[in-house]
Predict the 3D structure of the following.
Amino acid sequence: MQSKVWKAIGLILILGACGGAKETTTSVAVEEKTYADQRLMSTLWIQQSGEAELLCRQGFAYAWIKLQENLKGYNGEGQLAIVVDIDETILDNSPYEARIILDNENYSSESWNDWVMEASAPLVPGAKDFLMKASELGAVVYYVSNRKVSQLDATIQNLERYNLPFADPDHVFLKSEDSDKTERRERIKFNNTVLLYVGDQLTDFSEELKVVEQETFEYSTELLEQTMKYFIILPNPMYGGWESNLYQNRPGMTNEQKNEVRLRSLNPQYKPKK
């Protein structure tokens, strides 16, 4: 009888040890998850899905329609112009995202600079066709990007690779200090009538669209009308200001802290605003 009791106790201890080992393994696996891991599906979606390509082509097709519509209201003052963002609007940087995921790294200014200097980013589907038709219509193209001014030559080289119109220092406006594009857009508007803006971030049209929390994400009627008339936005699930807004733009957050915020931000009762 005693032998059976000790065998039972031994079995319980073994099972307990196994259960503890399983829990530890799971915990370690969670801790080993990196920030880059969480960009895996969004990067694959951009690179592999027909939906992503079609959305981009539809976006540029609609941009062409809106450009022609807005041209009807042109009063002849100033040179006709369009303003486009570069990254994830004209140039596709998903290869860079793929690299840092495969290397188990996060974004860094150093690795990003190395990528930009290669001047090898492919085109976003539909971008060249739209830009060529816009220039043939008589519109000057301005590229307004938050790449650094030190990356100007490489950026122009990348645009020239595809023979894009107006790929020169007079029409490529990069960031010197402030990521707010308002001043650069105003400079362009001084001598031009801008008929359309194209980008992948809300702030590619107006800094007024920048928000901190979802609850404050509301437009004035006038701003909404202007946005709908003059701005075309393209899909970019890989990164953006929306993510910084989740963290309330707090610098120096660890991956673990960011993950906690992301989980807290999920809303199982979420309903889109009408």
